[in-house]
Structures are given as structure tokens and as C-alpha cells.
Amino acid sequence: MSRTCLPLWITFALVLLMFAAGASQFDGFASLRVVTNLISDNAFLLVTALGMTLVILSGGIDLSVGSVIALSGVAAALLIGPYQWHPLLAFALILPCAALFGAGMGALIQYYQLQPFIVTLAGMFLARGVATLLSEESVAIEHPFYDAVAEFGLELPDGGWLGATSLLTIALVLLMLVLTHYSRFGSSIYALGGNSQSAQLMGVPVARTTILLYASSSMLAAMAGIIFSFYTYSGYALAAVGVELDAIAAVVIGGTLLTGGSGFMIGTVLGVLLMGLIQTYINFDGSLSSWWSKIVIGGLLFFFIALQKLLSHKWQNKAGGRA
Amino acid sequence: MTNEGVVVDQTHQDQSKADQLKAARQARYSPGQSAHQFSLYLYPLVALALLLLVNLLLDPQFFSLQWQDGRLYGPLIDIVNRSAPVALLAIGMSLVIATGGIDLSVGAVMAICGAVCANLLVLGDWSIPAVIGLAVLTGLACGLVNGFMVSYLGIQPIVATLVLMVAGRGVAQLLNQGQIVTFQNPDFAALGSGSFLALPVPVWLVLLALLMMQLLLRRTALGLFIEAVGCNAKASRYLGIDDRGIKLTVYLLAGGCAALAGIIATADIQGSDANNAGLWLELDAILAVVIGGAALTGGRFSLPRAVIGVLIIQALSTTIVVSGLPSKFNLLIKALVILLVLMLQSELFRNQLKTLFSFGKLRGGKA
Amino acid sequence: MSEQSNNKSATPVLQLRQINKNFPGVKALQQAQLSLYAGEVHALLGENGAGKSTLVKVMTGVLQKDGGELLLDARAQSFATPKDAQQAGISTVYQEVNLLPNLSVAHNLFLGSEPKRFGFIDKKAMANQARQLLSTFGLDIKVTAPLSEFSVAVQQLVAIARGIAPKRGAACTKVLVLDEPTASLDADEVQNLFQVLRQLKQQGVAIVFITHFLDQVYQISDRITVMRNGCFVGEYQTINLNKAELIAAMLGKELCQQRHQAPCLAVEHSEAILTARQLSSGQSVQQLDLDLPQGQAVGLAGLLGSGRTEICRLLFGLDQADGGTLSFAGKPIKLNNPAQAIALGIALCPEDRKTQGMIAPLSIRENISLALQAKQGWWRVISKKKQQQLADFYIEKLQIATPDADKPIGQLSGGNQQKVILARWLAVEPQLLLLDEPTRGIDIGAHAEILQLIRQLCQQGMSLLVTSSELEELTAFSSKIVVMRDRKKVAELNGEDLNPDRIMAAIAGASV
Ligand SMILES: Nc1ncnc2c1ncn2[C@@H]1O[C@H](COP(=O)(O)OP(=O)(O)OP(=O)(O)O)[C@@H](O)[C@H]1O
Ligand SMILES: [Mg+2]
User: Fold this and answer.
1) Which of A115, A136, A248 sits opposite B290 (nearest CB)?
2) Ligand 1 pocket mutation pick from C16, C22, C26 by most atoms within 8 angstroms of CB
3) DSSP character for B345?
């Protein structure tokens, strides 16, 4: 048990280390405000990464999430703006549509035996294509509901503020935690990732799981798009380019294997936090040029991944020796 | 005497029995059906042919070639020429994918190598072979970094190369100090826009790279080893294949290919734009390799098929331009066509198509 | 020749009639048939590649039949997926261990029918039930550990246990299919398994039992169906068929074999090619003294997990020694990786062909020539023609059942895969060949062939170290047998002592 959780603890330690590094260098880094901002700034990434974790655990990958974020943002903005829908009504249309989109990709992967990477890459082009078709310009959102949501939140000491979207994100994290580790659907996902052939032989409903899986991922991405629209008050077809890679990176840094079958939902949360902290750190510095910040991000990413690898390797060897 | 006869008879019977057994066994097997190389090439080629056909319908001049100043011009040449950088990337990417890895950094490596070239040329006093050599060395160094992270640190390929994808573009911008660095050097520019024996130089470079790689991989056992490592790295280690060395090698080669692609791209626009050089080309390269029929989980690869994949992608982009649709439809059409091309490779889909067509025929016949 | 089926009950629980199944280049099943009655153990026998596993897969919905019919309780049925078959009451343990190495043992046992509490999976209850279930097999392991941490034998037992575990929403088990369940088990574990089978039989379950161990057939089965070349040969009562007749039915000819030949001692007293002194590696091998003489076969016996496989790994450079010395052909050596060992002339045919041996998508030809190629280095390529010659030679010699050498090895039957892996190492012509369970899953005809081959190799001066759970087999060619227990060498038997009883005693820990 402890051995499988080891990478998690190491990642957790690294998050603390990063936080400590920031706190020691900058005034005001070590505050609850920074922590809550971390959550609200990365809420949409976190929600996306949750879905991505499901997919990666099953041995697949979903490259379409960034575009789905953009598409759902644009769709929401258009429905709320020009079409005068109530936001909740718009969301009620968008989320099932996204799920359907994901299910479609899942079905292609399952029934035509196409590779997830490519199907979702096509999905990525498709979603962004539809988004550009809907509107090539950024569409602003103005609605009392958005203002009301922005007001709503939990006041914490030390300047901390958990807004509605942060609360929603936390709820989603808890839901996904239970779903992956304590439900049959979760077990089936791990089974698929372990070996889909064996899973099939063992009677796991492979087709249903695959389709549901991609549907959830797309739906979570659409949810992330909505959260993002609360953050930017707009929808834009070119928003969230490359978010899929950030999400994948977060999942992998969280200790999930891309080959599938091994990893934890909570690891993904840690991965997102770590990436967010790196970004916060750079923002706090403020003096870096845009290229230096890219290099520093890359360097820190490398540092943490390598450290994580070395530490878990070392401890695993030790544990192996003792056993 | 009689006794002997019986014995002879016995062995004779045994013999015929053994023959019968053998015949029964052979009747069950029909050799020569296991290898189906042909169909692997068939569907990508069919897809390419279909795309070209659509182009021909849209533009009757599509297949025309003009001869001007010792060089061929025409839409077909254009397609081949434009696909050169991605083709080079796809050659390297094929190898990486064959080992079950992926290299997201090739676009950034293109940018770095382009920046290296441009800056050296601006500085002056560097001979062109030296510039090319340094750029290729830079690419190899990038590949080395990737390969080291993947094979010796055991980091998963997608994140390992993501690091360089993010940081690499930063490095390129750093080299260019955030500017677009342009240079005036006709000799170097010829690498991107010149021609040789009627064809553009980039096309020759691709052919050369393809040939060299093909020789390197298929005339030695390297290709087989790459496939073995991609199929089952553990079993390969048990066979005495140095799986880590092989993985390192493929990233190295991919870095080298990316460097060449970067050189062509830089020479073509006579400048280095660190922000946009090679941007998202890694996805095109991966797409091409998969359209060529490779599995991202590793295993069999074929460089010619990957190049066919590149041609398909480029032909598609050309089609979209030729069709005259507003550019906002680009992505949508690209997505749909790619899906169609991929589906063509799925046996189930082909069978469904067949039944659909035969239904159509039936109805047509009755009507 | 076939006899009237017996009278126990009028209709069979499961009946397969005139089943056909084709793969590209192979008519895997031609008019195959099988009938199963409640409360019997039915042995399904045949050579490697006869079509046994294919029949099982057709019967359980993994493959779709091309022709014929399947009757369950006298009603025609067809299963689209393994799950359908499971729901209808057919539990199956397939030939290769088909479990999920990433999940815990308990989860593997109950995947799909996990015990729940308030709608959530109850992991504690699952672990408890798992422990209970495994105790019927005398297995006491940490059920929360991932399956990948355990040996093939344990995984096999877990697979069998999963086969008999109750399934959610399924009819009670009517048919249990076991495809070579005993291939990697040792004698005690086999007896435990048979105990369980007898219980199930009493409860009226029909059991299909596939194996290449004929002794086990006579121990447990009531009736036998024999297949050859994808066809049905006959159905027999076990008590009415003696071993020779059975073998003749399977092979289509008598097996001419001379059992219990003297061990091959081509060279009476030969130099040791490999010597180990006080060799240790972590906890897995402790202070091993070992001499492997030139031109002789040494047997390595012991229970599973006694350190046999670990010795092979150590001598092949897969694990590193952390104490003691090793010398090969008179020179001290240190092995860091298999490539070094192979360069010296040491080869290992590994225990687990699925993960350590075959490179499934590659062809037989490539699989056979790869080791030789790796030894030669990547720049000196073996031409396709040479590869083809090698492949053809071994296909003929080991009677590998395949239409041609271009077939991917993953599509061969289990026994034939094993033969290809063996051929791969023979092609290297090493000085010392380590064989870890070389005859696992190999049919009786080829088995005799391989024993013959081992003798031949010794005659040619090759040295062998052969690990096996089959003591009969070990005594047939070994000049010396090393017995391991708890990761230590406990005995070295030779001369008079080379018989299964003595080895058994040494394994069990009686004084030697
Ligand atoms: N997926 C497949 N594709 C192509 N051919 C196959 C496939 N599976 C099995 N075959 C062929 O069908 C024949 C029967 O194989 P099968 O696995 O049923 O043999 P078996 O009787 O179980 O042998 P063994 O005792 O070695 O396990 C073999 O010649 C094999 O090569
Ligand atoms: Mg079989």
C-alpha cells in the first residue's frame, strides 16, 4: 500500500517545497490568499485534468479538451448574449452536448479500433473548427447571473476567498475521487488500463466503459469551459490552446502512468497545484522576460519530474531490499 | 523370407501413415497469407489518390506542370515542396513512435535550430556547411536531452519532451532576443527555395534523408531492434538488445531530422521567427505517422508510409485552399477528412461501406 | 472407436457440434465437437496447435464461430462476448494468465462483482472474501498487493480461484473451463486444485480440463475428447483407454520413445564451464556454490519460489550479484546485463514467455533470428534468406504448427510459442544454455523430441542448466541435480540418487 502511494507523498513533498521556496523569496507568498487564488486560477485546468486522469488511467488520451473548453465557452457566450438564454439553461444544453461529443469519440475508438490519440486529435480540430465557425471574435458575457455568481463565495481569513467556481471544483474533485476508487466504473477503468484484452476476457463491459469515459472527459472539459467563462466573462474560439498538454502534464506529474492502469486522482490535484505554483512563482517574480519564464517553467518542470523519479526509485529500491 | 516381407510391409505402412498425417496437416494450413504488406500501403495510397482527385475536380489545371528556368512548377510540386519540413519530422517521429514513445519537442527544436542558423548567418563569417553542421549538432543535442530523460531517467516520453517543447521555444526566443532575425544569404536561402534537377531542393533533402534512414534502418538490424523494443522492451532486454541505447538513438535521430526541417523552414523565409517556426508541426508529424498506419503503442513502422501520410495532410490543406471556402471552415474540414482517412483503415468500416454500397446497388437494380 | 456417452443424464449441459473456425492461413477448427455432462471432469487433449484453446474461445464468446452450433441445456445459444458466456454460467480460465497485473489480488478475484456497502466498493470485505477463497487453494498471500508482485504460479492459482468465485448477476456456474491450468503449478498445488475440482464435480459442475500431463488426466478426468489438426478424433471413457492408445489417438501414430535412458555423460569427467562460489544477490539467492560441467545437463529442482528462477536471472546478468564470485570458462566474470552474458556464450530461455519471451507482433522468422542478430550486433545484419533458413529449420525440427514463418508469434498456440522461444536460443548456439521451465505447455510428442534434443546438445559439448517442476523429466537427462529450498542450495544429487523419489525427499527437507 505504502509503496504504491509513495509517488503521491513525494509529489506532495515537492508541492510543499515549491511553496516554501516561494515563501522564503517573496513577501506575501505564504498567505491563504495565494492558496485560494491558486485554486481559482487553476480551477478550469483542474477540472479538465480530472477528466484527463480518467482517460489516461484507461490507457487512452484526450487531446480535444482544450478545444472543447473553447467551444463551450463560445457556445455559452452566444446563447447568453445574442440568443438571450438564461445561463443555467445554456449550461443544461451545453453539458449533454459535450458528453455526446465525447461519447462519439469513445465509440469511434471502441468500435472502429482507432487510436485515441488520433481520434481525439481530430476531435480537437473539429471542436475548434465549430467554435471558429460560431464566432471568430471573442464574445463578451454580461448577465446578472454571472455577477451573482462572482459575488458568491466563502470568506476566509488572511485575504482568502473561495469563490463559487472554486467550491464547485472542490466538489467535483471529491466526486471523482469516489468515482475512481470506490465504484465499479472506476474499477473498470483501471482494468482497461491494465490490459484491455484481459479485461474483456474477465467480463468487464469494455465498450460501455470506454464510451462513458470519453463522455465524462468531454463533459468535464465543457464544465471547465464554463468555469473559464466565469473567469474571463467571455467566450473565445482561440481560448485555451494547449491546455490539453498542461492537463496531461499535470496528470503525469501526479504519478499516473500514460500507459494506463496506474495512478491516483489525488495525484492529479497535486500535479495541477505544482504547475500552478510554478506559474505563481514566476508571476511573483515579475522581472522575467517572456522567454526566460518559458525556460524557467521548463527547467522547474524537469527538476521536479526528475527529482520525483529519483526519489521514488531510491525508496523503492530500499523497500525492495528490505522485503 | 516371409518374415522379412512382413517387416517391409510394416515400415511401408508406417511411411504411408506418416505421409497421411503430414498431408492432413498441410491441408489445414495455407502458407503465404500471414504477411499482408500490400494492404498496408493500399489504404493510405487510396486516400491520397482520392484527395488528389477531388483537387482535380475543383481545379482542372491541378495536374499540370510547367517548365520554367530549369525547374518544374505546378500544384503537385507545390504539395511535395510544402510537405518537406513535416516529412522530415515524420521520418524521425516514426522511429520514436515505433519504440512506443512520442516527441512533442520537434517543433521547438526546429525553432531553436532555425534561430541558430539565422544568428550565425547574421554574424557573418560562417561558411554554410559550418552553419548547417552546427544546426544539426544543436538538433542532436536536443534529441540527446530527450533521449536521456526517456531512457535513462525513465520519464514518460510525453512529459519528457513536453519540457523541451515549452523551454525550447523560450531558448529560441532568447537566441533571437524576442525579434524575428532575418538574413541575406542567397546560398543558404537556396536550401529552402532553390531547385536542383528540376525539383525544389527541400524535396531532394527529404528524399536523401529518407534514403539514408532507410539504408541505416533496413540494411542493418537497427530497424528490427527498434520494432522489437517497441513491441516488448522487457523481452528485448532478455534478448540482449540494449533497449535504453535504442531509445536514446531514436530521439537523437528525431532531433537530427527536426534540425534539418528547421534549416529548410529558416532558409525558406530567410529568417527565424522563434514564436511561429514549427508551431504545432509535431501534431502534423504524429498525425502523418498514424495515417501511415503505425500504432502509437509502438511496434512496426514504415518511413515511406509516414511520408505518404504527410502528403495526404498537405494535399488536404491544398484542397481546402483550392476549394475557396472561407478559412473558418479549415479546421472542420481537416477534422472530417482525417477521420475518414483513419476510418478507411478500419476493417469494420470498410465492410460497412461495402454492405452500404451493395444495398445501394440492389435498390438501383430493382428500380 | 468412440464410445457411447454414458448414462449419467440424458442431455449434456453443453454441446458443441460441427464447429468450424478459420484464421488467415489456418483452418483452426474443422467439424470439432464436444459434449459435456453435469458432474464430470472432461479432459480435452491434443497436440500443440490442435485447436483446443480455439475451441474454448469459441465456446466462451471470445471468438465467433464460422459454422456449427452450440447448445446450452439443449438450447441453441451464441455468445457475443465473454461476459455473455459468464452470465450464462460458463466460467473460464484461459491458457495464458489473463488477469490485470496492476490491480490487487483481491480486486482481480472480484472484478465486476465487488462487494459493496452503501453503494461503494467495500475494500475490506473484498480482501476478507479473497483471503477465504484463496485458502481453499492453500494460498496465504497479501491480497491487497498488486498481482504483478507474484510469480506466474500464484497468478495462475488466482486465475483459477477467480474462475470459481461467485459472479454477480450470473447463473450459478454450470461449466468450468480450465485451459492448461497446471502448466506452471507444482505437485502440491496440483493436488489442491484437484481437491477443489472434485468438490465442484460433486456439486454438479461440468469441468473441461486441458493439459499435456497425461498422469493428471488419469488422476482426475472421467472422460476424454481428443482433437488433432482441428478435427474431432474421438470421445472415450478414461478407464477404458490406456496411455499408449491415448497417445496414439493424439499424435496419430505411436510414440517411439525410450524413457529412463542413462543421463548423458558424453564426457565422463569434464571441466566446469561455470563455477559460482558463495554467490549471493540480495535476499533472492544466498551463498550459492555451483559447478556446471562442460557438455552435461544439470537439473535445478525445488518448489516454486525456492530461488530457481533467481539463479537463472543471476547467471544471465538480469540481477546483479552482491557477493561471491563467478567464473566462466576459467575466467572470473561479472555480469551487469544480458548482453554481456550472451556475448560470453550464456543464454537464458525465460520462464514467462508472454512478458519476457515473445515479441508478439513480430513474425516467427524474426523472433527466431533476433537473439542471434542481437549477439552479432546491429550493423551485421542477418539476411532475410538466412533468417528464413533458420526459421524453416526449426519449424521442421521442433514441429512448430504454422502455415509459414511470417505468422506473428502472438497468433500461435501456446505450446508452439514456447517452441519458437526455444528455437531462438538454440539458434545462438551458446556454450551454456539456461532453460527455465522449457517444456511448459509442450505436447507429449514434442516433449520427447526436446528431451532428445537436450541430450544431443550435450553430446555436441553444450552445457545446460535446466529448471523444471517435472522431476521425471529432469532425471531423464541430468547428470546432476541441484535442489533448492528457501533460496538456498540444500542438496546436490548424482549417480544413484538421481530418481524422483530422492529429489522429492530433498525438496521436502528430509535429511540427505
Ligand atoms: N488469433 C489467431 N490468429 C491466427 N491464427 C490463430 C489464432 N489463434 C490460434 N491460431 C491458430 O490456430 C491453431 C490452433 O491453435 P490453438 O491455440 O487452438 O491450439 P491448442 O490446441 O490450444 O495448442 P496448445 O496446446 O499449444 O495450447 C494454431 O495453428 C494457431 O496458429
Ligand atoms: Mg492452447
Assistant:
1) A115
2) C26
3) T
Domain's final residue, options C368, C399, C429: C429
Name residues whose C-beta falls within 8 Å of residue C155's C-beta, 6 or more positions apart in sequence. Answer: C97, C99, C147
Q: Look at residues C189, C224, C258 and tell me which one is the last residue of a structural domain.
A: C258
Q: Note whether C329 and C364 are same-domain residues.
A: no
Q: What is the 3-state secondary structure (H, E, C) of A238-295?
A: CCCCCHHHHHHHHHHHCCCCCCCCCCCHHHHHHHHHHHHHHHHHHHHHCCCCHHHHHH
CA distance B17 to chain C (A): 8
Work out how many CB contacts closer than 8 A connect A with B.
132
Inter-chain residue contact B300 with C361, CB threshold 8 Å: yes
Ligand 2 centroid from CA C420, angstroms: 15
From C411, C440, C443, mutation site for ligand 1 pocket: most ligand atoms within 8 A of C-beta: C411
pLDDT score of B198: 86
- State how many domains chain C has: 3
Q: How would you write the pLDDT of chain A (323 residues) with one tens digit per residue?
A: 456 677 788 889 989 998 999 999 888 888 899 999 999 999 999 999 999 999 999 999 999 999 999 999 999 999 998 999 999 999 999 999 999 999 999 999 999 999 999 899 999 999 999 999 999 999 999 999 999 998 888 888 888 889 999 999 999 999 999 999 999 999 999 999 999 999 999 989 999 999 999 999 999 999 999 999 999 999 999 999 989 999 999 998 888 888 888 889 999 999 999 989 988 988 888 888 888 888 988 888 888 888 878 877 776 665 443 32
Distance from CA of C457 to the nearest CA of A (A): 38
B13 — pLDDT class (breaks 50, 70, 90): low
Kindly state whether residues C380 and C456 are assigned to the same domain: no
Residue C50 in domain = yes
Q: Among the bound ligands, name the one nearest to the CA of residue C415.
A: 1
The environment of the single-atom ion ligand 2, i.e. residues with CB closer than 5 A, is C 53, 95, 413-414
pLDDT at A320: 42
Q: Is C369 in the pocket of ligand 1 (CB under 6 A)?
A: no
Enclosing H/E stretch for C68: strand C67-72
How many residues can be counted in chain B? 367
A171 close contact with B: CB closer than 8 A: no
User: Which pLDDT value is given to residue C287?
Assistant: 86
For chain B, the structural domain boundaries read: 54-345
* Assigned CATH topology for domain B54-345: ABC transporter involved in vitamin B12 uptake, BtuC (1.10.3470)
Half-sphere exposure of A213 (CA within 13 A, CB side): 35
Residues C243 and C300 in one domain: no
pLDDT at residue C259 is higher than 60: no
Residue of B159, B173, B348 best to disrupt the A interface, most CBs of A under 10 A: B159
Residue C353 lies in a domain: no
User: Quick one: pLDDT band at residue C363, thresholds 50, 70, 90?
Assistant: very high
Please tell me the residue having the least CA distance from ligand 1 atom 17.
C413
Spell out the domains of chain A, with CATH numbers in brackets.
Answer: 2-312 (1.10.3470)
B192-221 in b/e burial notation, b at 16+ Cβ within 10 A? bbbbeeeebbbbbbbeebbeebeeebeebb
Nearest to B218 by CA among A151, C383, C346, C170: C383
Cβ–Cβ contact B366 with C under 8 A? no
Residue A140, chain B, CB below 8 Å: the answer is no
Take atom 8 of ligand 1 and give the residue whose Cα is closest. C411
Closest approach atom of ligand 1 to CA B28: 29
Check: CB of residue A113 under 8 Å from CB of residue A197: no
Tell me: do C24 and C164 sit in the same domain: yes
- Say what the pLDDT of residue B89 is: 97
C252 contact residues in B (CB cutoff 8 A): 17, 20-21, 24
C-alpha cell at B306: 509516414
CATH code, domain with C224: 3.40.50.300
Distance CA C30, CA C232 (A): 8
Residue in chain A nearest B288 by alpha carbon: A118
Q: pTM for this one?
A: 0.90
DSSP H or E segment with residue C326: strand C323-328
